[in-house]
Specification:
single chain; alpha/beta; TIM Barrel; 8-stranded parallel beta barrel; two-stranded antiparallel ribbon; 11 helices; 17% strand
Length: 281
Amino acid sequence: MSQFRLNRLFNPDSGRALDVAVDHGFFGEPSFLTGIEDMDSVIATLVAANPDAVQLTLGQARTLQSFPGKHKPALVLRTDVANVYGNPLDDHIFSHHLPHAIEEAVRLDAVAVCANLMHLPGRPEIREANIRSIMALRKEATRYGMPLMIEPLVMQDNAAAGGGYMVDGDTDKIVTLVRQAKELGADLIKADPTDNVADYSKVITVAGDVPVLVRGGGRVDDRTLLERTVAVLDQGARGIVYGRNIIQHPKPAGITAALMAVLHREASVDDALVMVDESPK
């Protein structure tokens, strides 16, 4: 059963999870590599900081799983690759999932796999490709008891974003795509934050009994990040999936500890900020 694996993702006391996304190199965008050029060092730092999970690609997952011992972050395996973030965009836009992704996840002892569900204005073929990937993954995930995390991504028109597609925080659009993820059989949903953070209860409601983990998006200051985290948790989010706000932070271990304190011990924003300030680089 997939729940057996999810028991390793969610903290048994709080019922929440921090998944650090370090799968950015998969997308072929040079700017995404800032802070993660040396993946051996990055993963070692994260293992020491010990978030609940680390999200990695097939090519990097072995580095995490090579660490000995029982007390290390769980693995969430990214299963698909797309080229929607370039500036300028390529003439041909694509999205593909890995063949045998679920079997690979089982071999790598992952607790879940992650796949995109993208809405790109004027590019319905990308959403269709994502749906086909999700349906194929869902079949095999059920067979092997592997939890399937679907990542609904509502994107702005690339002309407005000045090149590559950027996230659109429109509540109605996010709610609609999250609902489609639920209908497609998601075990977990990794959803965008809404522009109006007070709207996030609508995302939680439409997801029903499927746990929602909130994406971090682009870099913001520590107080904004922690306040937004508290706000979505208060509205029912079961966790967060943050990447650049951790891996590009000057003190990645410190911000990880602060976020874990907010998630699992309900620390205040001010107390969590002290943890960042007092941590070594």
